Backbone:
């Protein structure tokens, strides 16, 4: 199995990367809790699939609850799940800081915090280095055709 990579051209004319091509991971079918429970069960787990599913559902609910309370949750060997604050523009002075989420000033510019997002930071042996060294990459069919067409010209 491989990570499939496609190519996407930047169409933002205000960007320094305008018209450049960027690789993007192309994902397969989403695996939900039931699918993950089935996958675990298929690895000859001694626990019945419905028990595994129940534990995963409970872990999901509790992870969400703890993140909303400001606690990072670590799944050993996988990652640390946590809430993060997104603010692209910063504040000129500390006194200008606000906890307003998604606000705009009178000219329509974003102020405050744009969003709260979930991030997952790899941990243990499952690091960026391990992913980079152990992943197998393949071009998507679309990327292969874009590359072939570009090589002709």
Residues:
């Amino acid at each position: 199995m491989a990570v499939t990579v496609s190519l996407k051209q930047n169409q933002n004319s205000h960007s320094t990367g305008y018209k450049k091509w960027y690789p993007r991971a192309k994902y397969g079918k989403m695996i939900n809790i039931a699918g993950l429970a089935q996958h675990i069960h298929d690895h000859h787990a001694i626990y019945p699939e419905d028990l595994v599913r129940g534990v995963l559902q409970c872990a999901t609910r509790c992870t969400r609850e703890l993140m909303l309370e400001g606690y990072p949750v670590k799944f050993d060997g996988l990652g640390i799940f946590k809430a993060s604050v997104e603010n692209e523009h910063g504040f000129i002075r500390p006194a200008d800081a606000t906890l307003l989420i998604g606000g705009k000033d009178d000219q329509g510019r974003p102020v405050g915090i744009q969003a709260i997002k979930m991030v997952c930071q790899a941990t243990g042996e499952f690091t960026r280095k391990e992913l980079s060294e152990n992943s197998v990459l393949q071009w998507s069919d679309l990327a292969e055709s874009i590359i072939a067409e570009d090589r002709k010209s």
User: Anything to note?
Assistant: The helical segments are 33-42, 49-68, 128-134, 141-152. The first strand starts at residue 3 and ends at 9. The chain has a mean pLDDT of 87.
